[in-house]
Amino acid sequence: MSNNKNYWQVRIQDKIYNEHVQALKRRLTKVYRQAEQDINSQLTDLYLDILASGEKVIPNMLYQQNRYKKLQDLINKQIIKLGKIEEKEIANNLLSTYKQVHKETMEHFGADVIWSLLDEHTAKQIVYANFKGANFSNRIWDNKSKLRAQLEKSVIDSVIVGNSKDEAVKDIRRCMGAGFNDADRIVRTEVQRALNDGQRQAYKDRGYTQVRWLTGDDDRLCDECSAMDGKLFDINEAPGVAHPRCRCTFIPVLDESLFK
Question: Which Pfam family is an annotated match for this chain, by its short name (predicted)?
């Protein structure tokens, strides 16, 4: 495998990828930290009520606790808030990623870029397209449902087992960290897909009909991508990404059949 940095297409992608992934990471880090703080504040109130009662808490008793009901409501509200923010921020970022890489790729070809309403519609369709049976929005809300269940289980387990408040707070942090990692995986996967599809459209606009797969310069190169390195695809058949967190791409090639 050659050094991908030798390809101008890859250099354009790397610049945009780092810019957009880091911007989303900063934004999501902030909202996840705030959600964690709000949940832990309500969790502290629940523990204070339990200490004041002086009784051993059993599941049925916990469900009757007014503080626990408030904590459940807060967790649900925070989950919905996180999901809405993620969906909006990621959608806007992916659309911007697609348009930016298309523009810079076309400019490298020396072509003028005139963005039309039809182009905007096409870009939005591509951004919301399915990857392995679901689009990024579906995955965000699936992950939020999982996070809600993990947070509620964490609270119940901590209280019933008799963990200290500090131990319960650590469990909340662990759950939120796992939720953030799920969001980060979506971001990295979908930004790369938007980059590949944006460049794919630029290649099509310039008349190319075939592309060659380039595996990413990554120590974690998987067997799936390694097997495709150098493979020729019809331009509409090349996958946007092969798997979550994929960094592979493709470059345009002349249709060899035209010269036979």
Answer: Phage_Mu_F
